[in-house]
Design brief:
Number of helices: 5
Structural class: alpha+beta
Number of strands: 8
Shape: globular
CATH class: Alpha Beta
Number of domains: 1
Strand content: 15-25%
Radius of gyration: 16 Å
Distance between the termini: 27 Å
Length: 208
């Protein structure tokens, strides 16, 4: 049996995370307010807030998590440096991948979890969500430095690339965020209840 939207909602309910679910698109959107003293990440409004979309595809045999418009290269004169930086990040950090949309400059970090006919476990879902949020938190300064200067410096990562492990569980992750925050930003992003239509089509693998 494949994974369902209800299963993902149940996992989120268990840790009291607020979210918006859209059965029509098999998607969920969550908002996290990061600790401003522990991260350089800021959204387009200058707030330490990140939105994450969970998309279920292929009749529940595949799920992906992504942060829409985490960064934008619109008008950036150092795209080559950014591409070099995210390629190096991918080679050092488990699971995290990046998509780029040349039409609007969107850089979208994402993680993927192929399930085939299995149900997603709480541990699996927690790990991919940790990987996405921790990756954004850890490498924001590397990406922004490349965007602003054209210089690639992995030493600017929030935590060292080597010798670091992911948080042991969801409670460790929630130390970085406000578990009850971000609902206003979710409503703004979702346009009053309609989630972005960014789910991959059946059989289509996201570019990474």
């Amino acid at each position: 049996m494949a994974t369902t939207l209800a299963e993902i909602c149940g996992i989120l309910d268990d840790v009291s995370l607020k979210y918006m679910a859209d059965e029509a698109s098999d998607s969920i959107i969550l908002g996290f307010t990061l600790d401003a003293e522990r991260t350089t990440y800021r959204d387009k409004d200058g707030d330490p807030h990140v939105a994450i979309v969970v998309a279920i595809a292929e009749q529940g045999e595949f799920i992906g998590l992504f942060a829409p418009f985490a960064w934008s290269l619109a008008g950036c004169g150092h795209k080559a440096a950014v591409f070099e930086a995210i390629t190096l990040i991918q080679s050092h950090f488990k699971l995290l991948r990046f998509d780029y949309d040349p039409n609007d400059g969107e850089i979208r970090p994402n993680v993927e979890l192929p399930l085939e006919d299995a149900n997603v476990t709480t541990q699996q879902f927690q790990r991919v969500m940790r990987a996405l949020i921790e990756g954004i938190n850890r490498f924001d300064q590397v990406i922004r430095h490349a965007m602003n200067t054209g210089e690639v410096r992995l030493d600017l990562a929030h935590n060292p690339l080597q010798g670091q492990s992911d948080p042991a569980d969801i409670d460790s992750l929630l130390q970085l965020i406000d578990r009850t925050g971000g609902i206003d930003a979710l409503e703004d992003l979702a346009g009053g209840g309609s989630l972005p239509d960014d789910s991959p089509d059946e059989g289509e693998r996201w570019a990474g």
